[in-house]
Amino acid sequence: MKNSFVIKGHLCQTKNPKELDLHENSYAVCIDGISKGIFEVLPEEYAELPLYDYGDALIFPGMVDLHVHAPQYAFRGMCMDLELMEWLNSYTFPEEEKYEKLEYAEQAYGIFVDALKKGATTRACIFATRHRPATELLMELMEKSGLVSYVGKVNMDREASEALTEDSADISAYTTFGWINAVKDKFLHTKPILTPRFIPCCTDKLMEELREIQMAYGIPVQSHLSESKGEIDFVKFLRPENPFYGDSYNEYDLFGKNDDIDTDVKTVMAHCVWSTEEEVELMHKNGVFVAHCPASNMNLTSGIAPIRKYLDKGLNIGLGSDIAGGHSESIFRAITDAIQVSKMYFRMVDEAFKPLVFSEAFYLATKGGGAFFGNVGSFEAGYEFDAVIMDDSVLAHPQPLNLAERMERAVYLGLDEKNIVAKYVIGTKIL
Ligand code: GUN
Ligand code: FE
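That is the input. Now the predicted structure with guanine docked in place:
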């Protein structure tokens, strides 16, 4: 049987946000890419399978990046002096214009996909640019990498630089139709996702056409929501008829489940820093996923998303790197950032909202975001087998450490950037 084996090591995961689920010197069984669970003693029925013993290494589920901009990877870690709207106009749009040229896209996307593959991320929701050829190239590269992803050709027909603005809503929609038709059945692990950049960049007519496309193909949706104050004011100006920002996606049936037309439009919205109570209620009702991107929220001075509130309400939440608003593609880094910003929110904003603890942030990075992809982010039976195996012996220490301490330290000290030994995606070894 293809992709059927057993791995042995120290397995670390979170089945729920409240606690770590740790298994020293245990076995994880993968049959046809699907986990059969974790066992202290290997059941007889699996005794004939190949066994890969990773010794003293740590084994985590793969990380899920629920929001990342591939074309912004080239300028990550630079241009951090402006807030969102000025940052887009001054740095981001000029960089994204370059993806008109396939030679540039090939080089830049090659670097991005390589980095993602080498890290702990196994799944990602990716924004490309408005350019169809470069977006298809990115999808080819992602498929070759063995990672699983949704990739979106961005729609934007107003309020961007001239070179980046599509000529009309019709042309944007027409290009999107052509792109979806070309890619929807082409790849096994790389699928299209509808990607209106955000309300400021999309005319009403374009949103109307995207609704039609979504209904025709049933594909998921990703966008940005309530990220920064300047952006939100602009949306109020552009769409005064909507009582809150999210309603302007919902009006076009691009905001999660919709009982009126009896459809479930799988949707992920990045940021939700300033969502109003009404907006949060609707996200909850519609099952919209929040992609929490703490590094980006700090770098662009956007604010702190109240993730404790969203967790307590039971919203779907994952973590995102938001390259290049965020400067690192590491989801380990996003885990520590999420904990740290929640501490600042508690101390500086509202002590009613307790800081996140490690197990909660780890959960968001694995099962939380993984739910967007199905049964993903855990070694529980029935979950797709994504694993990252790391040797933490490179992080020297004088004192004995238990497994919980080793797990937390591996994340805080960025072991994903230091010593990944192996990586599996749906049971295929890609590193
Ligand atoms: N809103 C619209 N476009 C973008 C983008 O590229 N990055 C971030 N962080 N927010 C956005
Ligand atoms: Fe973003």
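The two ends are 20 Å apart (CA to CA).
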